[in-house]
Amino acid sequence: MLITQLKPKETIASIAGSKAFYITCEGCREVYFPEEEAAQLREEAAGIGSLVTDYICNPDNLMFQLEKHMEKLNAADTIVVFSCGVGVQTVSACFTGKKVYAGCDTYPLPGGQGVTPLEYDCDQCGECHLNSTGGICPITACSKSLVNGQCGGAKYGKCEVDKDMDCGWERIYRRLEAAGLTDSLLYPVKIRDFAVE
Amino acid sequence: MRITELFDQGKFVITAELAPPKGFHLDHMLKEAKEYLGAVTAINVTDNQSSNMKMGSMATCKALKDNGFESIFQLTCRDRNRLALQSDLLSAAYFGIENLLLLTGDHTRVGDTPQAKPVFDLDSVSLIHTVKLLEQGVDLGGKELEGEPPKFAKGAVVSPCSDSIDAQLSKMERKVMAGAEYFQTQAVYDSEKFIKFMERAKQFGVPVMLGLIIPKGAGALNFLNNNIPGISVPPDMIEELKKDPERAKAGITGVEITARIIRECRDYCQGVHIMTLGWESKVPDVLSQAGIA
C-alpha cells in the first residue's frame, strides 16, 4: 500500500498558475488519499477546471477520462495532479509541453502497490521531486537517484551502469527544454531526507 | 596553499593527477612525482577512481604534502554517506589539506567491486554545499563546529565535450550556485568544442582548468572516444597517431598533440590539469612544448 499526503497549501499555491486545471485520482484501493482536504483545496484555488477520476496511472484510461476536458486542459497554464507519483508521471508524459505538477507526496506502506506501470515508477520517497524535474522521477529514472542534476556518466544519452538505459537526467532536461522550462532546474540545493516517514 | 589564491592573482595554474596504488606503498609514486612533477602547482589524487578499490586519497594527499607537494583531495559521494563525508573533510583539514575536488563519483557497477552498495547519499552539488556550511562553522545537521572552521578551495568537474552540453552547463551552474570556486574538465581532445563551451561557460566567472590525457596510441584514444563519457576525439587525431606507431608508442606524438591542445585553448582557460595515467614522465615535455613551463 501507499499513502499520499497533500503538499503544503503554500507550495501548491506557488506552483499553480492563474489558469490551473486540477486532476484528482481516487481510484486505487491500495492508496490512502486525503479526499476531503483535496476537495477543499480545489475549491479555494478556483482554477479553470477540475476532474476527480480513477486509475490515471493507466495512460489509456487517463486519456479516456480526459477527453471531455481537453478544451480546458489545452487552455490551462498548469495541471496540478493529486495522486501518487505514478499518476503525476503519466499525466506529465501525456502533456509534455505543459507544466504538470504534483500536489502530493507519496509514502510507502507494506502491501500491494496498485496498478503501477513500470515506466512510471515511483519510489514513494515522501518528498516528491517531480515538480522541478518535468514530471520524470529522478529517484527511479537515475541509477544514482541524483536530485541535483546529471552526473558525468552518460554517453550518447545512455547511463554508465546500463547501456540500454536512457540517462534519466537527460530525459528530464529534454522534457523541460521542450516545455521551455529549463530554468526550473535552478532550484536550491536539494538534500534527501531519509528519515521522512 | 589554496589554488584559488593563484587564480585570484591571475596565475595560469598547472596540476597533475595521480592515482593511489592498490596497496599502501607510495615509494614509486613519490619518486615519479619528485622526478617529473616539480613544475606543477598541485597534485590531484583520485578517490577509488573508476570505482576501483585503491589506497585512500586523503592519506596519499598527506604523504604528498609531507614530501613538499601541494595536493588536491578528490572526494566522491559513491562510498560514503553524509556523516563520513563531513568527517573526512574535517580530517583533511587537520592534515592541512586545503584543496578539494568534489564529485558524485562513478557507479560501483563500473569498477572492480560491482557487488558493493552504491551510496550517493549526497551528490557533487550537495557536497559542495556541505563544504560551504562547514566553512561557516556548521555541519549539515545544523550543529556548530568547535573552534575555527576549516577553509578549502572548492573544485568541481564539468565535461565540455559532452554530447549533452546544455545539460552539462545547467549542472555547472548549479555547482557554481552551490559554491564551486574552480572547475577541472574531463579530458579535451577537440579544442574547437572546448572553446565553444568556454564561450558559454565564462558567464559563470569561475576559473576552468583544461583537462588532458596524453594519448598513448590510436587504439587507446579510440577506446576513450567510444567508451568514456564526455570524451570526443576528432577523427584526424586518431589518424595522426596511426601514421607512425613507433613514435606514438614512445609518446612523442601524444606529447605533441597534448601540447598543441594546450596552445590552442590556453587563452580560453585559467589552467591545465594533466591526468597522467602512468605517463608522469611525459609531463615535463608537454609543459615545455606548450610553452607554459
CATH architecture of chain B: Alpha-Beta Barrel
Number of helices of chain A: 7
Helix-strand string of chain A: EHEEHEHHEHEEHH
Largest interface: A-B, 30 and 36 residues
Shape of chain B: globular
The name CATH uses for the topology of chain B is TIM Barrel
Number of strands of chain B: 8
SSE arrangement of chain B, N to C:
HEHEHEHEHEHEHEHHHHEH
What portion of residues of chain B belong to β-strands?
5-15%
By CATH reckoning, the class of chain B would read Alpha Beta
Q: What's the short version?
A:
Chain A is α/β, with parallel strands linked by helices and 197 residues long. In chain A, 29% of the residues lie in helices and 16% in strands. Chain B is globular, with a radius of gyration of 18 Å.
Structure, described:
The complex is a heterodimer of chains A (197) and B (293). Chain A is 29% helix and 16% strand. Chain A is α/β, with parallel strands linked by helices and 197 residues long. Chain A folds into two domains: 3-107, 3-Layer(aba) Sandwich (Rossmann fold), CATH 3.40.50; 130-185, no CATH class. In chain A, helix 5 links the parallel strand 5 and strand 6. The longest helix of chain A is centred in the first third of the chain and has 11 residues, at 35-45. Chain B is an alpha/beta fold and 293 residues long. Chain B has a single domain, classed as Alpha-Beta Barrel (TIM Barrel). The longest helix of chain B has 14 residues, at 165-178. In chain B, 51% of the residues are buried. Chain A binds chain B through residues 143-157, 160-161, 167, 169-170, 173, 177, 182, 185-186, 189-192, 194, and chain B through 82, 104, 106-107, 109-110, 118, 120-126, 129, 140, 157-159, 162-164, 166-168, 170-171, 173-174, 177-178, 186, 227-230.
Task: Outline the secondary-structure elements.
The complex is a heterodimer of chains A (197) and B (293).
Chain A: E1 2-6, H1 9-15, E2 20-25, E3 31-32, H2 35-45, E4 49-53, H3 59-66, H4 70-75, E5 78-82, H5 85-94, E6 99-102, E7 104-108, H6 138-141, H7 168-178
Parallel strand pairs in A: 1-3, 2-4, 2-5, 5-6
Antiparallel strand pairs in A: 1-7
Chain B: H1 3-8, E1 13-18, H2 27-36, E2 42-45, H3 57-66, E3 71-76, H4 82-94, E4 99-103, H5 124-135, E5 153-158, H6 165-178, E6 182-187, H7 191-201, E7 208-212, H8 218-227, H9 235-243, H10 245-249, H11 252-265, E8 271-275, H12 283-290
Parallel strand pairs in B: 1-2, 1-8, 2-3, 3-4, 4-5, 5-6, 6-7, 7-8
Helix pairs in contact in B: 4-5, 5-6, 7-11, 8-9, 11-12
